[in-house]
């Protein structure tokens, strides 16, 4: 009997290098909104991307000093950021392996434009109902003092979010992929104990892959799907490059941290504190 042994790392290297969509952004986000008496907003997010893609770590942008975010140096956008005026945003792609991207705008512009424009989160969400098809498939979180919103250009209803614990990867909000469920469960556990930035960062540190019968079917190969099923990814060409943690207390003091990684492990970390309007 022949036994085929698939090395997911080798398969990934071949597959991602052939894809036409070079903005993979296969990220994972979990957040607790108005679920803790001291911290009305808690968010943890992993950014997964090619290691070779040029990136700046989280910083205040020179051209927009009110913005605090990492930056993609190819398209000048970001995957997660906030502003001193109390805006928050994060984006993931919608994974469709059979639908190759054409000449579409960078998804990182969605977050950048929200942070640099005067639109409220609600108004920006409404604007995207007519302009969202200019981008590849996306999931977008938008927040300001009036509320927290979710929108997508793949058919899910845009909406203001009620209090709760949420998970978002590369399908609609709260799609029960194994790593989404694991992330939410880890965050739920932390809510019942002492909360620190570093404890929160560890909620998305697992490299455990899902069982085969639990893998989603998003149109990519088995090996690719398997590798991407863990919360934290590390391969030769692609992986989790940053873990971001946001912790906002009821007085509006927000701690924001970013931990950076390459193939060898953690390579840096940044910590910021802002006194800004409460999200929602």
CA-atom Rg in angstroms:
18 Å
Helix count, DSSP H or I runs of 4 or more residues: 6
Q: Which oligomerization state do the chains in this entry correspond to?
A: single chain
Name the CATH architecture. Answer: 4-Layer Sandwich
Account of the 3D structure:
InterPro entries: TANGO2. This protein has one domain: Penicillin V Acylase, Chain A (4-Layer Sandwich). It has 280 residues and is an alpha+beta fold. The protein contains six helices and 13 strands. The strands form two sheets. The protein has a seven-stranded antiparallel sheet with strand order 3-4-5-6-7-8-9, covered by helices on one side.
Q: What's the helix and strand layout?
A:
Blueprint: H1 8-18, E1 28-33, E2 41-50, E3 55-60, E4 67-72, E5 80-83, E6 88-93, H2 108-116, H3 121-131, E7 138-144, E8 147-152, E9 159-160, E10 164-168, H4 178-190, H5 197-201, H6 222-227, E11 238-248, E12 253-262, E13 265-275
Antiparallel strand pairs: 1-2, 1-10, 2-11, 3-4, 4-5, 5-6, 6-7, 7-8, 8-9, 11-12, 12-13
Brief overview:
The chain has 6 helices and 13 strands.
């Amino acid at each position: 009997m022949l036994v085929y042994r698939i090395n997911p790392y080798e398969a990934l290297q071949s597959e991602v290098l052939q894809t036409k969509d070079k903005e993979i952004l296969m990220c994972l986000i979990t957040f607790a909104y108005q679920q803790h008496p001291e911290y009305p907003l808690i968010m943890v997010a992993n950014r997964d991307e090619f290691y070779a893609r040029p990136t700046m770590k989280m910083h205040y942008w020179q051209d927009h000093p009110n913005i605090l975010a990492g930056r993609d140096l190819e398209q000048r956008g970001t995957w997660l950021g906030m502003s001193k005026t109390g805006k928050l945003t994060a984006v993931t792609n919608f994974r469709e392996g059979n639908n190759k991207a054409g000449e579409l705008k960078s998804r990182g512009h969605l977050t950048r434009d929200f942070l640099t424009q005067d639109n409220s989160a609600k108004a920006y969400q409404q604007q995207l109902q007519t302009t969202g098809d200019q981008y590849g498939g996306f999931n977008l979180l938008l927040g300001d003092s009036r509320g927290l919103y979710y929108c997508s250009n793949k058919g899910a209803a845009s909406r203001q979010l009620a209090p709760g614990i949420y998970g978002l990867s590369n399908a609609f909000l709260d799609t029960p992929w194994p790593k989404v469920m694991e992330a939410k469960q880890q965050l739920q556990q932390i809510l019942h104990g002492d909360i620190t930035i570093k404890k929160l960062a560890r909620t998305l540190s697992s490299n455990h892959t899902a069982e085969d019968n639990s893998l989603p079917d998003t149109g990519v190969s088995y090996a690719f799907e398997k590798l991407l099923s863990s919360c934290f990814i590390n391969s030769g060409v692609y992986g989790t490059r940053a873990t971001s943690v946001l912790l906002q207390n009821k007085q509006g003091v927000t701690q924001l941290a970013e931990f950076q990684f390459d193939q060898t492990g953690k390579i840096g970390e940044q910590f910021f504190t802002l006194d800004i309007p409460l999200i929602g």
